[in-house]
């Protein structure tokens, strides 16, 4: 019985290893290329390790990273991306949570209609809204600025929906008890609702971070000034200006990809959960 | 609330308004009625690539969506069949999802490199001659669809959740009845996954119709007006075309009209799919 089970599972494991290789090799190839000397990159026989093309010796280099960080502007872009995520994600969390709380717990006139309207708005493809949203951003004087990156993205209908559903599932008695003890609405929100919602807040935080760290389209249309470029945008620029130098581009790609992979490794369970709920905002 | 009016509701309505105008974002919009729509659809001198972009997008959708769902289902079935190591495999298969579009584009451009790319080297092992994937019009869409399938992790997670939701008793009953694994899949598992498949199909089609970031990164040779959409516009997807009109050629009115056509198309598809589901339920 035991062995037959093992035999039965072997092809499954073989298939999984092959599939996993397909999904991972591109990253290995990216990293390997990013550590290679320019002269070692273009070889007939590809090597997954940074080896010297003539001697076959181990010869990794950090030159490419140095180049893209200094000359390629990716250092600045990296800082910009970090800065945007540091401001955007907490601000978004706060605003979404407040909105979700009012939709879940504060009866105000027209609330449910408003909520349905908002959900209906979610059906409109992002691309349809792109041009007018740029126009609005321009009129508000936020075009081509850090604020233009942040303000229009600071609330997400999907996240509000997610948070609202979670808040609705919390027992109302807790709030009533707090109210009897003399707590105000904001106190209840801070002291009771938010601490109880840590799991869902974590999901929203992580998926938001991944989404905005990776986002290309909005920065692409809202920014002109290369000083403000976020990492995906700067990487895209690098890829087109240095298109003959794969080693630079792969170093840039590694800068964009590795932080998210680290986050994935740390928060894998929460991320998978979040994906199942939100589909990473797609 | 004001936020949603400014960044969601107002843009949605103004997109509709601007689609009836001639507008370059700087000057006032001039009312032209249905001219944008008529020109896009009928005037192939003014908009020579409109139908090409429609065709490219439909082709892409038809290849990428089934390929993605098939791969995702296969991965989920394999993962579901094993215990040991399933977390590790899940994580590895999921890696491509958290990768920025800009990085995905850069990495795959390097993998598809006709001379030094890993894809051709790999095919060479089987004696298959190398291809210039991204420069051969017929190969562009399959190459893009393969990248989409590589990134199928979200669908995989959702399928996995669906598989976990199938009660063991049903599976056991089928085994006792002497069903082979293949029979079990087609008669029991697949029908039970139908709601999941349907959901993934709807969201997958909607996402595929809007594919943009990846093609933008892959087929943008440089700044200015050099984004062409690949060899003979074979990678000129609808949204890339829309983007070019809006932000390269200053034809905001036409771009809004295009985005509205897409919106209506997506609505029709969604409605049809839901009607189909209702019929099935009754």
TrEMBL record, chain A:
Membrane-spanning ranges: 12-32, 81-102, 114-134, 146-167, 188-213, 246-267
Database matches in Pfam families: BPD_transp_1
SUPFAM superfamilies assigned: MetI-like (SSF161098)
Name of the protein: ABC-type glycerol-3-phosphate transport system permease component
Segments forming domain ABC transmembrane type-1: 78-267
PANTHER family for the chain: ABC TRANSPORTER PERMEASE PROTEIN MG189-RELATED-RELATED (PTHR43744), SN-GLYCEROL-3-PHOSPHATE TRANSPORT SYSTEM PERMEASE PROTEIN UGPE (PTHR43744:SF8)
Organism in which the protein naturally occurs: Streptosporangium album
Protein family according to the UniProt entry: Belongs to the binding-protein-dependent transport system permease family.
Keyword Metal-binding: no
Keywords for this protein: Cell membrane, Membrane, Transmembrane, Transmembrane helix, Transport
Principal subcellular localisation of the protein: membrane
Membrane protein topology class: Multi-pass membrane protein
Subcellular location, record wording: Cell membrane
UniProtKB/TrEMBL annotation, chain B:
Subcellular location field: Cell membrane
Keyword Transmembrane on entry: yes
The organism's place on the tree of life at top rank: Bacteria
InterPro entries the record matches: ABC_transporter_permease, MetI-like, MetI-like_sf
A GO CC term assigned to this protein in UniProt: plasma membrane
Primary localisation category: membrane
Membrane topology field: Multi-pass membrane protein
UniProt-listed SUPFAM superfamilies: MetI-like
Entry similarity comment: Belongs to the binding-protein-dependent transport system permease family.
PANTHER family named in the record: ABC TRANSPORTER PERMEASE PROTEIN, INNER MEMBRANE ABC TRANSPORTER PERMEASE PROTEIN YCJO
Transmembrane segments: 58-79, 91-111, 139-161, 197-219, 251-272
Domain ABC transmembrane type-1 stretches: 54-273
Gene Ontology process terms (BP): transmembrane transport
Protein name: Multiple sugar transport system permease protein
Record's keyword terms, sorted: Cell membrane, Membrane, Sugar transport, Transmembrane, Transmembrane helix, Transport
One Pfam family of this chain: BPD_transp_1
């Amino acid at each position: 019985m035991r062995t037959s089970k093992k035999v039965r599972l072997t092809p499954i494991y073989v298939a999984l290893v092959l599939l996993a290789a397909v999904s991972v090799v591109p990253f290995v190839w990216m990293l390997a290329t990013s550590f290679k000397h320019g002269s070692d990159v273009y070889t007939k026989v590809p090597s997954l390790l940074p080896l010297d093309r003539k001697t076959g010796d181990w010869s990794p280099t950090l030159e490419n990273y140095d180049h893209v960080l200094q000359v390629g502007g990716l250092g600045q872009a990296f800082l910009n991306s970090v800065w945007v995520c540091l401001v955007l994600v907490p601000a978004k969390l706060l605003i979404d949570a407040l909105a979700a709380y009012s939709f879940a717990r504060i009866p105000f006139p027209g609330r449910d209609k408003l909520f349905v309207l908002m959900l209906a708005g979610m059906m409109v493809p992002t691309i349809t809204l792109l041009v007018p949203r740029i126009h609005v951003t321009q009129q508000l004087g936020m075009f081509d600025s850090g604020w233009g990156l942040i303000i229009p993205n600071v609330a997400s209908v999907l996240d509000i929906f997610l948070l609202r559903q979670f808040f609705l599932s919390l027992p109302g008695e807790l709030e009533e008890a707090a109210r009897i003890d003399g707590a105000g609405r904001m106190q209840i929100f801070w002291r009771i609702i938010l601490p109880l919602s840590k799991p869902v807040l974590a999901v929203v935080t992580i998926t938001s971070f991944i989404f905005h760290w990776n986002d290309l389209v909005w920065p692409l249309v809202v920014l002109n000034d290369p000083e403000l470029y976020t990492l995906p945008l700067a990487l895209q620029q690098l890829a087109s200006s240095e298109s003959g130098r794969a080693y630079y581009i792969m170093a840039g790609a590694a800068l964009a990809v590795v932080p998210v992979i680290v986050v994935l490794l740390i928060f894998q369970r929460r991320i998978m959960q979040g994906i199942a709920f939100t589909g990473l905002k797609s | 609330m004001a936020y949603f009016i400014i960044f969601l509701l107002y843009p949605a309505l103004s997109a509709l308004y601007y689609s009836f105008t001639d507008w370059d974002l700087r000057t006032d919009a001039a009312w032209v009625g249905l001219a944008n729509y008529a020109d896009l659809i009928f005037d192939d001198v003014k908009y020579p690539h409109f139908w090409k972009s429609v065709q490219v997008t439909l082709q892409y959708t038809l290849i990428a969506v089934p390929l993605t769902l098939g791969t995702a289902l296969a991965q989920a079935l394999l993962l579901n069949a094993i215990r040991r190591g399933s977390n590790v495999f899940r994580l590895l298969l999921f890696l491509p999802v958290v990768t920025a579009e800009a990085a995905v584009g850069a990495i795959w451009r390097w993998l598809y490199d006709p001379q030094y790319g890993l894809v051709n080297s790999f095919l060479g092992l089987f004696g298959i001659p190398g291809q210039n994937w991204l420069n051969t019009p017929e190969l562009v869409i399959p190459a893009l669809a393969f990248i989409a399938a590589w990134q199928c992790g979200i669908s995989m997670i959702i399928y996995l959740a669906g598989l976990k939701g199938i009660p063991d008793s049903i599976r056991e009953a089928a085994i006792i009845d002497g069903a082979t694994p293949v029979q079990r899949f087609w008669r029991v598992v697949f029908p039970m996954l139908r709601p999941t498949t349907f959901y993934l199909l709807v969201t997958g089609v909607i996402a595929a119709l809007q594919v943009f970031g990846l093609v933008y990164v892959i087929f943008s040779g440089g700044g200015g007006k050099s984004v062409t959409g690949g060899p003979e516009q074979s990678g000129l997807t609808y949204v890339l075309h829309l983007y070019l009109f809006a932000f390269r050629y200053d034809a905001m009115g036409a771009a809004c009209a295009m985005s509205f056509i897409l919106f209506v198309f997506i609505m029709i598809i969604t409605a049809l799919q839901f009607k189909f589901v209702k019929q099935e339920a009754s």
